[in-house]
């Protein structure tokens, strides 16, 4: 036997065993990342040596198995796995292949990848008929009685559900229930479960449904399969399933390009830890079901979907102390100071603890042995405590009551996770942070000025707020550390040039809490000048589309502070753009106010992007899919027939590019 052949055999053997540990015993011995690395290695060897291919190889099969404890059911539609990637490059390669293989424009649905056990539910006449595990993909265990104990699984449906269909999802065990379950086990002298995923999967395979009922499981749905379904895209299918009564998480979005996909990935890589259940990545799917059908499946997974997995590696170490950091908005972040530990190739000494709730939820205490995880390049996080090692004399953590930087008493508004230091104008890290935000790339984008220099300028007493930047003289900055004549000139020029930056970005740069880029855009378009915005009441603000109570309150509060008003007056006097320019103003109307548009197909005179801007500039709204609320479908060439049919069905007015341009000119 050649060494390659031997290597392949060993890998297959090992992977079969790991699959068994994971799916059948629910007791994995290696991390998912390690598993995927081994699988990829095998994949590579098999691709290089097609003569050694074997249809029973772990690369060719969905990993699970059926058990003897339940009736075996053959799936009407095979249950596949997902191709996965751990890098943006892989994802981009996938997108390129998709674009090449697909007819017309491709949109993507981005969903979270819930980490639990896959399940297939069949409904007939609006009632749950049966529930089957994925098993080996071809057949699975019938566990209907266990599934019926999950409260979020509807037993009867509402609305216009099809007569018969299958819906797939993931059974998960939310963190809170998991922690509770483990606390009970520890109390009873039992070994705590390793992680929510395997516990969820194990719970489904319990023989006694009343035992399953004690597990606080949840079922999140993501895919509807059947004939003559009342939708033509993945995104619509999610909306429909929600209407019928299924629990379909709201986080999913429709992205018209990979840029949107990328933003979703970046956001959830960080924020997924705020979700009540575990996720291990994002699933990106070609949205159009017709395109999905054309793309089809490989032996193991659909070609039209890709899982982007967040990399996580875990280590155990000691929590030595908790300190508190103050952000630019005054938000307090608790930081865990750890006994240094090697993780994902770096030494980790600190980890984020998010907020007071998180500390309480995980019951994290100084002196504990804690599990630390690192996903990609993001700061590590504490994900749990090894309760077996807890010192009997330890006490629950008391959260900070005062700002560590300025001693001001912290406040926490109702319904908010974060504590804040309210001393916005006197608290040093808030002062520096606000100016750093002001000059950042997406805000004023001041060339020649970086975050460190800002900190230095504040420290030297040269600036106290962002308006002071415009008063800076070359002679003042020259004596600063590492500041040469040329860089001083660049800095001053950069600041002067920022006076050209458009109003919406200036508004974002001001750093009003909750006013991010998109909200700033909306507010700028609606109010047109900073003065109008400053005068706006809470009521006026919430009447603006997509502006909620929290944002409105924050805006009103910002302009109530005299110091903020003064700063804005000074910015005005320096010539910073605090109103929409004349040219831009000319293009803005409210001609389309109250109308919702869907754009489809290819256009002759304007690009889709321009079309979208025209609609928004004229007060209209653009959405991705047609519903009863859609007023107009702007139809270009090569528009999907399904969209047309849908529009005709719900009575949306279908207009051409020229019709539309007529409307706005
Ligand atoms: N550690 C181990 O020993 C070990 C062993 C075997 C498998 N594993 C892990 O399991 C993975 C393979 O398992 P898999 O085949 O179930 O693949 P997977 O879990 O990576 O992806 C496929 C599954 O994702 C689920 N999913 C969650 N959210 C979804 C959504 N929004 N849309 C569609 N599907 C969604 C579905 O249940 C689907 O079956 C490996 O990548 C590995 O990480 C680990
Ligand atoms: Zn403070």
From TrEMBL:
<dbReference type="GO" id="GO:0046872">
    <property type="term" value="F:metal ion binding"/>
</dbReference>
<dbReference type="Pfam" id="PF01653">
    <property type="entry name" value="DNA_ligase_aden"/>
</dbReference>
<dbReference type="InterPro" id="IPR033136">
    <property type="entry name" value="DNA_ligase_CS"/>
</dbReference>
<dbReference type="Pfam" id="PF12826">
    <property type="entry name" value="HHH_2"/>
</dbReference>
<dbReference type="GO" id="GO:0003677">
    <property type="term" value="F:DNA binding"/>
</dbReference>
<feature type="binding site">
    <location>
        <position position="403"/>
    </location>
    <ligand>
        <name>Zn(2+)</name>
    </ligand>
</feature>
<dbReference type="Pfam" id="PF03119">
    <property type="entry name" value="DNA_ligase_ZBD"/>
</dbReference>
<feature type="region of interest" description="Disordered">
    <location>
        <begin position="190"/>
        <end position="209"/>
    </location>
</feature>
<feature type="binding site">
    <location>
        <position position="170"/>
    </location>
    <ligand>
        <name>NAD(+)</name>
    </ligand>
</feature>
<dbReference type="InterPro" id="IPR003583">
    <property type="entry name" value="Hlx-hairpin-Hlx_DNA-bd_motif"/>
</dbReference>
<keyword id="KW-0227">DNA damage</keyword>
<feature type="binding site">
    <location>
        <position position="427"/>
    </location>
    <ligand>
        <name>Zn(2+)</name>
    </ligand>
</feature>
<keyword id="KW-0460">Magnesium</keyword>
<dbReference type="InterPro" id="IPR004150">
    <property type="entry name" value="NAD_DNA_ligase_OB"/>
</dbReference>
<dbReference type="InterPro" id="IPR041663">
    <property type="entry name" value="DisA/LigA_HHH"/>
</dbReference>
<dbReference type="InterPro" id="IPR036420">
    <property type="entry name" value="BRCT_dom_sf"/>
</dbReference>
<protein>
    <recommendedName>
        <fullName>DNA ligase</fullName>
        <ecNumber>6.5.1.2</ecNumber>
    </recommendedName>
</protein>
<feature type="binding site">
    <location>
        <position position="111"/>
    </location>
    <ligand>
        <name>NAD(+)</name>
    </ligand>
</feature>
<feature type="binding site">
    <location>
        <position position="406"/>
    </location>
    <ligand>
        <name>Zn(2+)</name>
    </ligand>
</feature>
<comment type="function">
    <text>DNA ligase that catalyzes the formation of phosphodiester linkages between 5'-phosphoryl and 3'-hydroxyl groups in double-stranded DNA using NAD as a coenzyme and as the energy source for the reaction. It is essential for DNA replication and repair of damaged DNA.</text>
</comment>
<dbReference type="GO" id="GO:0006260">
    <property type="term" value="P:DNA replication"/>
</dbReference>
<feature type="active site" description="N6-AMP-lysine intermediate">
    <location>
        <position position="113"/>
    </location>
</feature>
<feature type="compositionally biased region" description="Polar residues">
    <location>
        <begin position="196"/>
        <end position="209"/>
    </location>
</feature>
<feature type="binding site">
    <location>
        <position position="309"/>
    </location>
    <ligand>
        <name>NAD(+)</name>
    </ligand>
</feature>
<keyword id="KW-0436">Ligase</keyword>
<keyword id="KW-0235">DNA replication</keyword>
<dbReference type="Pfam" id="PF22745">
    <property type="entry name" value="Nlig-Ia"/>
</dbReference>
<dbReference type="GO" id="GO:0006281">
    <property type="term" value="P:DNA repair"/>
</dbReference>
<dbReference type="Pfam" id="PF00533">
    <property type="entry name" value="BRCT"/>
</dbReference>
<dbReference type="Pfam" id="PF03120">
    <property type="entry name" value="OB_DNA_ligase"/>
</dbReference>
<dbReference type="InterPro" id="IPR001679">
    <property type="entry name" value="DNA_ligase"/>
</dbReference>
<feature type="binding site">
    <location>
        <begin position="81"/>
        <end position="82"/>
    </location>
    <ligand>
        <name>NAD(+)</name>
    </ligand>
</feature>
<feature type="binding site">
    <location>
        <position position="421"/>
    </location>
    <ligand>
        <name>Zn(2+)</name>
    </ligand>
</feature>
<keyword id="KW-0479">Metal-binding</keyword>
<keyword id="KW-0234">DNA repair</keyword>
<dbReference type="GO" id="GO:0003911">
    <property type="term" value="F:DNA ligase (NAD+) activity"/>
</dbReference>
<dbReference type="GO" id="GO:0005829">
    <property type="term" value="C:cytosol"/>
</dbReference>
<feature type="binding site">
    <location>
        <begin position="32"/>
        <end position="36"/>
    </location>
    <ligand>
        <name>NAD(+)</name>
    </ligand>
</feature>
<feature type="domain" description="BRCT">
    <location>
        <begin position="587"/>
        <end position="665"/>
    </location>
</feature>
<keyword id="KW-0862">Zinc</keyword>
<feature type="binding site">
    <location>
        <position position="285"/>
    </location>
    <ligand>
        <name>NAD(+)</name>
    </ligand>
</feature>
<dbReference type="InterPro" id="IPR012340">
    <property type="entry name" value="NA-bd_OB-fold"/>
</dbReference>
């Amino acid at each position: 036997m050649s060494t390659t052949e031997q290597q392949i055999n060993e890998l297959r053997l090992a992977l079969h065993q790991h699959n068994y540990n994971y799916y059948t015993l629910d007791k994995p011995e290696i991390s998912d990342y390690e598993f995927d690395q081994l699988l990829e290695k095998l994949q590579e060897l098999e691709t290089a040596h097609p003569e050694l291919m074997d249809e029973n190889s772990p690369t060719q099969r969905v990993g699970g198995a059926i058990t003897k404890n339940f009736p075996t059911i053959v799936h009407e539609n095979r249950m596949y796995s997902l191709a996965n990637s751990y890098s943006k490059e892989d994802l981009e390669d996938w997108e390129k292949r998709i674009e090449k293989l697909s007819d017309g424009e491709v949109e993507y649905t981005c969903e979270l990848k819930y980490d639990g056990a896959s399940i297939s539910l069949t409904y007939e006449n609006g009632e749950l008929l049966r529930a089957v595990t994925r098993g080996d993909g071809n057949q699975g265990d019938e566990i209907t009685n266990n599934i019926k104990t999950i409260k979020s699984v509807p037993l009867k449906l509402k609305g216009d559900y099809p007569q018969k269909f299958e819906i797939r999802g993931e059974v998960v065990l939310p963190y809170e229930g998991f922690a509770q379950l483990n606390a009970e086990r520890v109390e009873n002298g039992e070994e705590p479960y390793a992680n929510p995923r395997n516990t969820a999967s194990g719970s489904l395979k319990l023989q006694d449904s009343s035992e399953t009922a004690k597990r606080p499981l949840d079922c999140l749905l993501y895919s509807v399969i059947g004939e003559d379904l009342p939708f033509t895209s993945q995104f619509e299918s999610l909306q429909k399933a929600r209407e019928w009564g299924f629990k379909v998480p709201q986080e999913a979005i429709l992205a018209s390009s990979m840029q949107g996909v990328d933003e979703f990935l970046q956001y959830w890589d960080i924020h997924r830890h705020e979700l009540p259940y575990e996720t291990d990545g994002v699933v990106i799917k070609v949205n159009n079901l017709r395109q999905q059908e054309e793309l089809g499946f490989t032996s193991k997974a659909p070609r039209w979907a890709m899982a982007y997995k967040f990399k996580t590696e875990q280590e155990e170490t000691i929590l030595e102390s908790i300190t508190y950091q103050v952000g630019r908005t005054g938000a307090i972040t608790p930081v865990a100071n750890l006994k240094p530990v090697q993780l994902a190739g770096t030494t980790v000494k600190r980890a984020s603890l998010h907020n007071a709730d998180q500390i309480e939820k995980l019951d994290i205490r100084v002196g504990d042995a804690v599990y630390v995880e690192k996903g990609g390049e993001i700061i590590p996080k504490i994900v749990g405590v090894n309760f077996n090692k807890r010192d009997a004399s330890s006490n629950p953590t008391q959260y900070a009551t005062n700002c560590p930087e300025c001693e001001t008493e912290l406040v926490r508004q109702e319904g908010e996770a974060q504590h804040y230091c309210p001393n916005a104008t006197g608290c040093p890290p808030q002062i520096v942070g606000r100016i750093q935000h002001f000059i950042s790339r997406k805000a004023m984008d001041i060339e020649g000025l970086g975050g460190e220099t800002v900190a230095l300028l504040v420290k030297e007493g040269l600036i106290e707020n962002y308006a002071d930047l415009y008063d800076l003289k070359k002679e003042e900055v020259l004596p600063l550390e590492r500041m040469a004549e040329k860089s001083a000139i660049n800095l001053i020029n950069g600041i002067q040039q920022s006076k050209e930056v458009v109003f919406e970005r200036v508004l974002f740069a001001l750093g009003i809490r909750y006013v991010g880029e998109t909200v700033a855009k909306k507010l700028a378009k609606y109010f047109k000048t900073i003065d109008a915005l400053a005068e706006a009441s809470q009521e006026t603000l919430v009447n603006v589309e997509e502006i909620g109570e929290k944002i409105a309150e924050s805006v009103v509060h910002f302009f109530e502070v005299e110091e903020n008003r003064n700063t804005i007056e000074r910015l005005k006097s320096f010539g910073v753009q605090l109103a929409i320019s004349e040219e831009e103003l000319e293009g803005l109307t409210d001609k389309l106010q109250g109308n919702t548009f869907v754009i489809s197909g290819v256009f002759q005179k304007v690009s889709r992007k321009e079309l979208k801007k025209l609609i928004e500039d004229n007060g209209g709204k653009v959405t991705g899919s047609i519903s009863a609320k859609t007023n107009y479908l702007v139809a270009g060439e090569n528009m999907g027939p399904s969209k047309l049919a849908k529009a005709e069905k719900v009575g949306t007015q279908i207009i051409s590019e020229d019709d539309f341009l007529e409307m706005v000119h």
